[in-house]
């Protein structure tokens, strides 16, 4: 399935307000699309939010500024402040540096130097086969993606939430090769301007056809977005004078 076809399915069945985005890791500058913008001094969450909100293709690498993102995407090795848990403690997430260290240990990480950078693009405009895809939406829209991911298998959709480093949670779709529900972190909302009502979902691109097909199948069987509320089909109790007026009119 081509990226544009997947995008059409996502837009049709989810009615998203921002662009689904495609991530592609690169090992050389020659792999970076010519039209990709390079913006130094921004965080990774700013980079992919620019893509999903502006429609830009962005290339980001070690010039990004957040130390957590640098380590997660394999652009740098942890320094002492990171490794000891001082960052999580200073940011207010951890009661102590010991607790902070445990925060950092669970952040998903690519091996240092695995790639020189990453390209993120609106899925509809991706000039490459993505490594993974991310979608932001409201909880009801993301629920539909959970339906699609377990439609064939049944069972429960399992995930984990760090409360920070959402970029690394998106990354797990690539490193663990499975879909992820992602609770955008404080930084994603503070720096990337992700809104209070938004959550996210990521999946490896190998699942593109499965996700698109299962969205269509569940839609066909009546599980849809926008969710058709039953209240619109129920008789309502109106003010007494309204009911009397309606009855009187019907007798005319």
How would you characterize this protein structure?
It is globular, with a radius of gyration of 22 Å. It has helices spanning 3-14, 44-54, 67-72, 80-83, 86-90, 97-105, 139-150, 166-175, 186-190, 208-220, 240-251, and strands at residues 21-26, 37-38, 58-60, 117-122, 132-137, 180-182, 199-204. It has one domain. It has a seven-stranded mixed β-sheet. Helix content is 39%, strand content 13%. 41% of the residues are buried. The protein has eleven helices and seven strands. The model has no long low-confidence stretch (mean pLDDT 96). The longest helix is centred in the C-terminal third of the chain and has 13 residues, at 208-220.
The strands making up the biggest β-sheet line up spatially as 2-3-4-1-5-7-6
Please state the overall shape, judged from the principal axes of the Cα atoms: globular
Strand residue content: 5-15%
Provide a count of the helices: 11
Q: Indicate the structural class.
A: alpha+beta
**Rg computed from alpha carbons, rounded to a whole number of angstroms:** 22 Å
Largest sheet: 7 strands, mixed
Given as residue ranges, the uncertain stretches (5+ residues, pLDDT < 50) are none
Order of helices and strands: HEEHEHHHHEEHHEHEHH
Distance linking N and C termini: 61 Å
On the 0 to 100 scale, the average pLDDT is: 96
Please indicate the count of domains: 1
| Structure summary, number of beta strands | 7
What is the helix content? Answer: 25-40%
């Amino acid at each position: 399935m081509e990226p544009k076809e997947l995008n059409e399915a996502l837009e049709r069945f989810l009615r998203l307000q921002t662009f689904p985005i495609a991530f592609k890791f690169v090992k050389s500058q020659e792999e970076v699309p010519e039209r990709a913008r390079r913006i130094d001094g921004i965080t990774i969450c700013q980079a992919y939010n620019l893509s999903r909100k502006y429609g830009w293709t962005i290339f980001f690498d070690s010039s990004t500024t957040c130390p957590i993102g640098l380590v997660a995407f394999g652009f740098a090795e942890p320094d002492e402040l990171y490794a000891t848990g001082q960052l999580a403690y200073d940011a207010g997430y951890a009661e102590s540096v010991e607790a902070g260290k445990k925060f950092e240990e669970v952040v998903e990480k690519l091996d240092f130097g695995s790639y020189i950078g990453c390209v993120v693009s609106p899925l509809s405009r991706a000039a490459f086969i993505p490594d993974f895809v991310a979608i932001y939406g409201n909880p009801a829209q993301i629920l539909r993606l959970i339906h699609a991911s377990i439609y064939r298998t049944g069972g429960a959709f399992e995930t984990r939430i760090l409360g920070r480093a959402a970029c690394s949670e998106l990354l797990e779709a690539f490193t663990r090769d499975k879909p992820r529900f992602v609770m955008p972190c404080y930084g994603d909302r503070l720096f990337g301007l992700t809104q209070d009502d938004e959550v996210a979902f990521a999946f490896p691109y190998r699942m593109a056809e499965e996700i698109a097909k299962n969205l269509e199948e569940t839609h066909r069987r009546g599980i849809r977005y926008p969710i058709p509320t039953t209240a619109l089909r129920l008789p309502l109790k109106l003010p007494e004078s309204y009911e009397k007026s309606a009855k009187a009119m019907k007798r005319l």
